[in-house]
Amino acid sequence: MAFADIVIENAWVRATTGTNKVSAGYAAIVNTGPQADQLQSVSTPIAMMTEVHESKATNGVMSMEPVDTLTVPANGRVELKPGSYHLMIMNVTQPLKVGDMVDVTFNFKIKGAVTVKAKVLPLAATKFE
Ligand SMILES: [Cu+2]
């Protein structure tokens, strides 16, 4: 029996331009259940590979690294946002145009798969709107 209940809010991805085949995705992961859950992987039909990354500033230099599992606390939320956790969407197979909607599936240890529609926002976007 699953005690985690996960809702994905405000999912969005960055538009691609020209021959760019890399995008980034963001969302708020809300756990309304009394048990923590873990995000284990993410996929989308519009890209060959999607990873969860964390951006960090070290001595003023931004870098990012893959995150194996991302824990979403009981009755808590984790924000995927610029400068923090994000989805790295690689080898995008089609141009992502502003206003398009793309399916993104988040796979959790307890909850299982949660698929949401993510809105394509302009390259310069900093938050869902
Ligand atoms: Cu990244």
Would you write up a description of this structure?
With 129 residues, the protein is mostly beta strands. The protein is built from no helices and ten strands. The protein has strands spanning 6-14, 23-31, 37-43, 47-58, 61-66, 70-72, 77-80, 85-92, 101-108, 112-121. Strands 1, 2, 3, 4, 5, 6, 7, 8, 9 and 10 form a ten-stranded mixed sheet that branches. A hairpin with a 3-residue loop joins β9 and β10. It starts with 5 loop residues before the first strand and ends in an 8-residue tail after the last strand. The model has no long low-confidence stretch (mean pLDDT 95). It binds copper (II) ion.
Write down how many β-strands occur, each being a DSSP E stretch of 2 or more residues. Answer: 10
How would the global form be characterised? globular
**Order of helix and strand elements from N to C terminus:** EEEEEEEEEE
Low-pLDDT stretches are none
Largest sheet: 10 strands, mixed
Roughly what fraction of the amino acids lie in strands? over 45%
Helix content: under 10%
- The end-to-end span amounts to 35 Å
Task: Provide a count of the helices.
Answer: 0
Which structural class fits the helix and strand makeup?
Answer: mainly beta
Ligand inventory? copper (II) ion
The whole-angstrom Rg is 14 Å
Determine the mean pLDDT. 95
